[in-house]
Amino acid sequence: PVLMVQHMPGYFTKAFAKRLNDLWDVPVKEAANGDILAPGVCYLAPGGKQMTIEGRAGNARVSISEPECFPSAAYKPSVDVTFNSVADVYSSKVLAVILTGMGADGLEGCKTLKSKGAKIWAQNEQSCVVYGMPQAVTVGNISQANYDIADMACHINNEILN
């Protein structure tokens, strides 16, 4: 499964997921509470909520929570919240990719994932619109690779196939 967490308002993510689904060969949907994660499906965290993953690999499901359940999370949805839950379920069987974005959301979740053996990649500075999030994991020595956005899909595909 592919999980996407993007800082977006709640009224936008359903339309964004539909647009991506119409453009990609990979099915994309706005994640809903109780969704069972399926290989080859992309789940977009709903805006204004928090998305966590529960269960165990092979039988994991989405849990959607109101932001009040995670008062320390500045963003809704928060990459840190999702990544921390993913670390508990999938441990080392994760490739986390941090793309352009403001702030350092994702840094703590990436630290947790890396401590469990997951791979962490970041978008390189030259191809970012806003280098904040990728910079946080790069400067924190968390990212194991930094790629231009134009090459990211190729690197992800190579990782999956190897």
Describe the structure.
With 162 residues, this protein is α/β, with parallel strands linked by helices. The protein contains 5 helices and 8 strands. The chain has a 3-stranded parallel β-sheet with strand order 1-3-2, covered by helices on one side. The protein is globular, with a radius of gyration of 15 Å. The protein starts with a strand and ends with a helix. The model has no long low-confidence stretch (mean pLDDT 96).
Helix content: 25-40%
Q: Compute the gyration radius: what is it? A: 15 Å
Q: Which structural category do the helix and sheet elements fall into?
A: alpha/beta
User: Beta-strand level of the residues, as a percent range?
Assistant: 15-25%
Give the tally of β-strands: 8
**pLDDT average, as an integer?**
96
Strand order of the largest sheet: 1-3-2
Q: How is the main sheet built? A: 3 strands, parallel
Helix and strand layout, with pairings?
Layout: E1 2-4, H1 10-23, E2 28-30, E3 42-44, E4 50-56, E5 59-65, H2 79-90, E6 95-98, H3 107-115, E7 119-123, H4 132-139, E8 145-147, H5 149-161
Parallel strand pairs: 1-3, 2-3, 6-7, 7-8
Antiparallel strand pairs: 4-5
Helix pairs in contact: 2-3
